[in-house]
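Input record (Table S2, row 337):
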Amino acid sequence: MNLAELGEFGLIEAIRRRARMSHSAWRVSIGDDAAVLTPPRGQELVLTTDAVVEGVHFRWRTTDPRSLGHKALAVNLSDVGAMGARPLGFLLTLALPRGIDGSRLDGFFAGLFALARASHCPLVGGDITRARDFAATITAIGAVPRGRALLRSGARPGDRLFVTGSLGGAAAGLALLERGRVTSASERALARRQIAPRPPFSVGGRLVRLRLAHAAIDVSDGLAQDLGHVLDESGVGARLELERLPLAPGLTRAAARLGLDPLSLALSGGEDYELLFAAPPRAPSAAVLGRRLQCRVTEIGVVTRQHRLVLLRAGRPVERKLSGFQHFKGHSRGSEK
Ligand code: ADP
Ligand code: MG
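Output record (adenosine-5'-diphosphate complex):
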């Protein structure tokens, strides 16, 4: 892709060709002033937006373009899925530095459209602007049966807390990348979790269909922080059993090499993009849930009436400073990103 040759309209045409994908919900997509969506009957729409900005969210030094395209969409699909919705489509606003390498753009679109196809989520419009640094802002649209979206505010005392997949891997991967120390296969797998996360974006929709969750959130800022959001919004507290946390494969070893605490990475490391959910006491075991949801599920704690987070080890409360833990109303909610 040669941007100087293509110009803005040539680039839009190239995107339009690559974006072609049949989808019944869209009557009009790229090429008109705006896209036209026919909302699925009996469903509500959910909308979310997330940007990846050069120098803020990624560096070309540690990211390949294909993974970046994948991640730009993946983080949005994660939010759609965490509402219990399935994706319908997305808009893409690109900020491109003058003279950007055409192979970077090609790679970006290869990763982006591979995930768009795999998730049946077409690109239906967008915008292109010049900028000093590269940025890709995606707005994703999803649908969920009316009244059934999984909110942060739905957790109730007695609910059991579950998390998909494993934790701490993306933060360990980032630390390994930043220090240029990705050598073994298991370290490469951790780095992949940071560079090209694979959110279980279909799991929220399955939870809705199975009527199996009261609340959900995707773990993007660290488990403690994101659980804190659920507790705040639901006006409840929780007990977390530390030894139950599903540590990412290779995390303990990588953390030892890095001089970091694996449990801190699992509790406070960002960008795992797993799904944390609260299910009623009658919910089946984690093993049964895992089969029904088609992913690994671990039960990690319980929701309590009193509005505080208690960490337990061997059944006993432990004190732990949770870095990046910025919740519970009244405290600062700023983000470091
Ligand atoms: P306008 O001047 O009306 O904003 P544009 O020239 O920006 O129109 O866009 C023309 C068409 O191309 C629109 O349908 C728009 O959604 C689409 N488009 C522009 N940029 C992108 C992009 N980055 N990705 C997908 N579609 C795009
Ligand atoms: Mg425009």
